[in-house]
Amino acid sequence: MSAPQRRRWQYIALGCTLLLALADTVQSAADPGGIWLTEEERRYLEQNEPIVFVSQSRYPPFEFLDDNEERHGIMVELAQWIATEAGFHAQLTDTVFHQAQERVMSGDAHVLTSFFYSEARDRQFDFTQTVFEVPAAIFVAVERPDVARVSDLDGKRVATQRGDYAREYLASLDIEIELIQTDDFASAARAVMEGDADAMVGDEQIVLYYLYRSGFHQRMKRVGEPLYVGRNAMAVAEGNHLLQSILNKGIEHARSSGALDRLYGKWVGAELPGAGVDWRGYWPYGGGLALLVVLIVAWNVRLRQAVRHKTAELGLAASVFSHAREGIVITDAKGDILEVNEAFTRITGYRRDEVLGKNPRLLQSGQQEESFYQSLWKELLEKGAWEGELWNRRKNGETYPELLTISKVCDRQGQVSHFVAVFTDISRQKEHERQLQSMAFFDSLTELPNRILLADRLRQAMLAARRSGCQVSLAYIDLDGFKEINDRLGHDFGDRVLVVIAERLTSALREADTVARLGGDEFIIVLPEQNDVATVSVLIARLLRRIAEPIEIEQTYLYVSGSIGVVHFSPEDEIEPEQLIRQADQAMYQAKQAGKNRFHIFDAEHDRAVRGHHESVERMREALANDEFVLYYQPKVNMSTGEVVGVEALIRWQHPERGLLAPASFLPVIQQHPLAIDLGEWVLSQALGQFEAWAKAGIRLPVSVNIDAIHLQQGDFVERLRAEIARHPSVQHGDLMLEVLETNALEDVTHVASVMKACRGFGVEFALDDFGTGYSSLTYLRHFPASELKIDRSFVRDMLDDPEDLTILEGVLGLAVAFRRGIIAEGVETLLHGRMLLAMGYQLGQGYAIARPMPAKAIRSWLESWRPDPAWRQRQRARPEELQAIYAMVDHRACAAGLLHYLKGELADPPTVSSRKSRLEQWLSALDESSSRGSEHTARIAALCTVYDRLAEEALQLKAHEDDEQVEQHTRQMAGVSEELLDLLQYWIDASEAIQEDP
Length: 999
Hints:
The chain is 48% helix and 21% strand. It contains 36 helices and 34 strands. α35 packs antiparallel against α36 (964-997). The chain is elongated, with a radius of gyration of 43 Å.
């Protein structure tokens, strides 16, 4: 079978393969994703993570490093895909081929990402199933016609990659060669082109990828049939059957889901072309042979068959002319066509009779300027020949590229008599070049520039900005909600969504702007020549609206949004393109953290803070490993009876240099970070262990533990908690309470509620911590099965000075009673706080007035010495008029403090002037003046209120007239009156309390 026929059948086979792959992809889109692993395989991954894949640094398109030292290739992406689907962490590394094998054999790496199978290698490695079959072939320089088959390698210098199977294959042949081993196939190809080797043997796709990518495809050619077909697979060290099984499952899943076909289409596409047969290299030898034949024939028949000889010679020339695959045109000295061959007709579409006598310029496409043809003719007449590429036009109007050689023919007098042009249609070669360029620089799905082309355009934009003084803006886009579409509807829908988004972004920008796809659902936009970066924000906002528009696919409306990070480059900035991209990526992450569907502009100060945050996280990880964390315990009590109802476990960091650190100094660093899960697991284990230790010592103290949101939202939280409790048999129902921040619980009501219900099923209670700082919605209270509310300490701390906090305490207590929830007040810092809370109806409290957090060993002695303050004992809830007095006292204290601050110039605007217009007036009005209880004191309180109001009004008038001395005098008088007024109110409250206790 001839080479063109073979290629034709290969294209047919490739088309069939693509159709089958497409059908398989559609089928797999309906199947659930993921790779099923056995328990033993999962344990292996947990014990050995990360799984280290070692790849070759120069083995494109299967695995290689690009100009930015980033790994790419089919097998690299397949390894990442398997790791994602199987749920383990993969670490990618690279080296040269022979060192990659040594790293797996020494245990420094787990997997050879790409390795050809052979019996000799199978004795040292365990191979996965074959991923791809790769033919190997002979490559030589185009000017070498003496090597066409493997037998022609006998006595030659043959280059190949060190450690490649080609060495074993060549050794098995009955030929003598000088083997030249290089680090990679690219080096082997250079050895051939530089004359250090006569030929090379290598994998077709890798060698051709390098030749086309480097522009050397016209300097080398592939000859002969494939020598062998290598089975490319992954490999692990001999005996590592568990990892071999995991990888086999991943490869099979990639094949059945269509992912393998997509990777092949992305990196290889249509069959890479060979260089073909360059007949020009054979003309000297063929001409010499023909001349020899002619001379022999002429010598034998010169005398007897002179006429027949001439006839045969002309017939041979005519046959060559007619059957040549190249188009041939013969013109006279003026350039008019005298003769064309059949290939001319096939290529151009013109019949012979249509062009005879006409000038070849009828084929001109118009894509070359007149100066091009002037230069062509000048070189042709001066040098006798011209060779090059140009575009011509067929009869049907279609343009095509051709490789053209024109020779000048002179008569015996040296005058031009004819011109002979030989040309070849190189449309297919140009198409292959376009495909290779597209593979190298454009995304195969969206046809947008990829990372390589993006880096080049960004670098050019930054250089231009430094010359012009303009700025460059960079926008990093990540789609919100795209993963859900992929998971729910399949990759086909996801790909179509990406194409729509790419079109929307492109249509919304200028021609000078660049939209690139980095991979997945991430895009980058380069906006060069920006004179006013403020306009960029308007553009980004418009892009956000454009992205968020509904996408209709097969009568289904899909919705995504975008999180965009923006960074502005100024000419004076000393920064590289990749660093600029990373800054935009960081800003995008900030936008996503802030709620998605928005943009965030990069801030250098924030960047430094992020780097510091990363360092802090790593230091905390070390602290957890070094056992530097400890638990302190703060009691929770019934303030009226003195009963200790439990303790709260509070983490502390025993820092080697900084001493004992409170949670506020380190926990915010790991908020929403996976390390918070590890730390939460440690706290649960330590707290339950301490509970058991107390129980064995005769102390039964229910313990409560704070749970971070990211920890609570883990899919296996319930089962892991159940297992932890099972390891502590002394823990019974109600002995463990988990405190969940109200604001965290509100992020996912349904999930948090289901977790709470599941945990309560095996005896774990829940409390909503810092209650009142979130929405405190009645709906949430109805859904959350929390048995206790913990009122936030900020409301308790300021209850004596802020009437609004007092109102919140009253409202939350009403909610707790209405929904039959327990309630506890945090932040009981003074005895007066406790008295006020008991008067309002709060029984349970926690704070410094009761006990500070203490080590576990101090709990016993505290229990023995703890007694509630006598003022707290058996304190009943206050009567309505007593509560009104408490509210009036707090209201007046806040109003008086605000007015004094204004008079002293510490506030810009005055608060409410008259205390009589506050709760104090309402309380005085509500009292029964005829009652003997406290009538003398209430009358004095009313009189003091009148005095205070008068002084306040006079002070404000003096303040308006800027009489500072009189203002200061009135301020001192007002402070005295206010202090006496508050003392009387407190006396009345105390007297009322005493009457209630002793009726």
